[in-house]
Amino acid sequence: MDYLSRIKSTVVDTVSNLSSVLTGNPLSGQYEMGAYLGSYGPCLLWKMFQATKRSTREEACVFLLEKKSLDRYPKAEREFALTMLKRGVAGLTRLRHPAILTVSHPLEESRESLAFATEACFCSLANIVATERPASPNVEIPEAVREYKLHEVEIKYGLAQVSEALAFLHQAKLVHGNVCPESIVINKKGAWKLAGFEQCKTLTEETARYSFDSTSPTATLPNYEYIAPECALQEMCWPASDMYSLGVLVYAVHMNGITPYSTRGSFETLKTCLEQMKNFPKAKLQTLPQGAREYVKLLLSFNPQLRPDAHQFGKLPYLEDVGVKTLRDLDSLYQLDKVAKSHIYKGLPPIVEKLPKRINLYRVLPCIAGEYVNAEMVPFVLPTVLIIAEMSSPEEFGSSVLPELQKVFLYTQPVHIMYLLLQKMDLLISRCPPEAVRDHLLSMVYRALECNAQQIQELCLNTIPNFAQLVEYGSMKNHLLPRIKKLCISTSLTSTRVGCLVCMGKILEHLDKWVVLDDIIAWLPEVKSRDSAVLMAILGVYKISLTHQKLGITKEILACKVIPFLVPLSIEGSLNLTQFNQVIALVKEMISQVEVEHRTKLEQTDTLVAEKAPVKTVKSPSADELMSELTVSVTTVKPPENGLKNLSLEEKQRLARQEESMRLFEGQAPLASRIDGRPARLGAQKLTTTPKDLTTSLLNSNLMNLENKTNNLKHNLQDQQQPFQTPNYNIDTSSLMSPTSPSNVYRWGTQNSLSNLNQNLASDWSVAQSAVTNAPSGGGWEESWGDWSTSTTGASKGVKNANVDLSEFDTLMSFDNRGPKKDILKRNRN
What we know:
Elements: H1 2-22, E1 31-40, E2 46-53, E3 59-66, H2 75-94, E4 103-109, E5 113-118, E6 121-124, H3 125-128, H4 143-146, H5 152-171, E7 174-175, E8 184-187, E9 192-194, E10 201-202, E11 208-209, H6 229-233, E12 236-237, H7 239-254, H8 267-276, H9 293-299, H10 310-314, H11 322-331, H12 338-346, H13 348-352, H14 357-369, H15 378-391, H16 394-405, H17 415-423, H18 425-431, H19 434-450, H20 454-463, H21 473-490, H22 494-507, H23 513-521, H24 532-547, H25 555-569, H26 577-612, H27 623-628, H28 649-666, E13 674-675, E14 678-679, H29 694-719, H30 733-737, H31 751-774, H32 780-785, H33 807-815, H34 819-829
Antiparallel strand pairs: 1-2, 2-3, 3-5, 4-5, 6-8, 7-10, 8-9, 11-12, 13-14
C-alpha cells in the first residue's frame, strides 16, 4: 500500500508541476493536459502526457522537457544540449511517413520548458524494454507500462515498421544514427514509430562523417550499446550503420533490454567491445527465436557490406508471419478494391483469435471499423469485430468497440448484419451498459421482429428473454409485447407462432401480474391455430401464469375465461394422449384453485356476518319449504281519503258493499289449503305482494264464460234441434276460493279479492236463475244447457218462483260498459 501511495503521490506531483511549468508555454492554450504516460529521447528527458486538442477534441500526446533537468550541466553544455534536442524535434516535424512519429503541433519554447504535440501515444519502447541509461528524475513509470508485455507478433511487426522507416530515410539520403529503444515511440494503436533524430546525418555520397565528443553531456551522445563499429572507430556512417543498430535492437527486445555488450557509458569500453564483435560468439544467439538467429548474426557483422539493407530486412522469412502479413494488409487497405478487401476480411477471424487483445483493439479494430459506413462490407468485418468484443472487457468494449458499432445496429439490409448481431446478442448484452441495451439493442430487436425473414424473427424471439430484465416497463408493455403478439397472429408459420408463445412464457417473470392478465391471458384466445405445438405453447403460458409465485390468475378470470377456453381445447384432434393429459391436469388444477379460493371466501364471509350480527337470523327457505308453508296474509286496504270527493254515487255504493263483505269475511275462521296433499301451516310464512285489482280480472273471466254460454243459447234457440236440458249450476268454487289456484295463489290475501269473489259468485247464480225463469218453452233450452235433472236436485223445480235480486245485474253492468256484454246482461235482466 505504501508503494502504491508513493506512485500516486508522485504522479499527482508530476501533474501539478506540469501545470505550473506549462503555464507559460504557448502549447498550453491549445491542449488540455492529462495523465502522465512515460518518457522518451536521450536520457529519457522528454516527458509524455496524454492530451486533448481544445478545438477539435482530438486525442494527442504532449512531449515536455523542463529546462531545469539540464541544470546539472555547465551553461555552455546546457545550451548545446538544448540545441541538439531542438534539432531532433525539428527533424521529426519535417519528416512525414506512416512509420515515423507524426507531429501535430511544432515545438514551442518558453522560459522554463520545451513542448510539442504528436499523435496519441502510449509510451516509448525504452519504458517497456529495460535499459541501463538513467530515466527522467523523480518520475515513476506508470503501472500500465510496467505490466506491458510485448507479443511476438508485436515485436516482428514493430521491427518491420522500423525497417520501413529506415528504408524511407536511406532513400532520402539520411542516416538516423541512433536507432535504439529511446528513439522509438509506441502510439496508442500499438504501432512502433521512429523518432529521435538528434544524431541524424545527411549522406553526401554513400557515406557521411559521424563525429561526436565523448566528453559532451550524455544527452548529446548516441547510445553506446547500439552504435555501429564504424561510427565509433572510424567516425564514418552509412545506411548499413543503422542496420547494425537495428540488429542490436532485435537482440535487445527479445532479451528484455539486454544488449550483446555493456559499456556503462564509457567510450573506451565501447571500443574494446566493438573489437570483440569481430568474432561474435554464437552462444549469445541461442536465446533468440530460431528464425531470427541467422539474420541477427548478419546484422551484427563487423563488415558493413555483409549486413542486409532495410528492404532486405523487411522481406526476411522471420518477418513473414501470418499476423505480420495481416497487419500489413490492414495498413494497405486504402489501396484495395472491395473484392480484395472481402478476401482479407474473410480470413481475419482465425488470425484475430491468435493475436493479443491489445493488437486487436488498437491495431485491427480501427482498420476494419472504417468499413461501417459501407453496408455491403459490414457482413465481412462483423465476425471479426464480435471476436474482438468477446476478448475485451466491458470498459474496453464501451470505449473502443461500441462507439463505432452503434452505426451497425441501424442497418436492416443486408439481413446478414442483423443475423450476426442476434447470434451474439448474449455477448453484446454482457458488454454493453444498460443504457446502450435500451437505446440501441432494443431498437434493433424491434426492427428484427418487423422484418420478413423467418430466421431473423425466430432468432430474435430466442434472444429477447436474455435481456428482458433490462427493458423498462413502458417499453415492454407498449412496444415489445404488442410486436410479439402481432407477429404471433399475423405469421403463417407454426414455428414462428410457437416461438412467440414460448418467448412470452419466458418473459412472464419480468412482467407485472396485471400486465400478464390484461395483455397476455386475455389475448391468448385470439390465437386461432389449433396445431398441437401451438396448443402446448398456450398451455405453457397458462401454467407459468398460474404457478409462478410472482404472478397468479384470479378465480374470476379462471372461472369465466380460462377454463371455458381450455376445456374445448382438450378435445382437439391434434392432441395425443400425453398432451391431452397435460391439458386435463391443468384444467383440474385450475378448478381446484377456484374451489379452494371461493370456499375460503364464503367461509370468511359467514364468519364476518356471524361476528357482526350475533342475533339469530331466519334461514332462507328452500323452494319446497316455501310452497309447503304458504299462508294467507290479510291486510286492510283503505282508499285514499283525498279521492272520496271525486267518486260518483254508484262507486260509493259499491265501496260500501265491499267493506260490508270484508267485515263479514274477517269474522270467519281462516281457510286452510293443501299443497301436494300436505296441509299448509297457517302463519308459518307470509306472502307479501303488491295489492292488485282482482275484481276486474275475475269479472272479465266470468263474463267471458257467460258470453260463451249465451251465444250458444241464442244459436240453439234459433235451431231448436235439441230438447230442453236443465242448466248445471254446480260451479266449482273451490278452485276459485283456493289460495293455491294458479290465478289466485299470488292474489290471495287482499281485501278486495274476497268481497268481489262473493259478489261474482252471487252474480253468476242470479244470472243463471234469471235465464231459467225467462227462458221460453221448447227444446232449444235443453239443447243449450243440457239435462238439468242429471246435475240438480228436486229443489231446482222451484226456481221459477224464486225471488231474483236485480241489483246484481246493475252492479255487473256498471263494471263493464262494452256493447256485447252489456246487451247480454240487459236481456238476461229483462
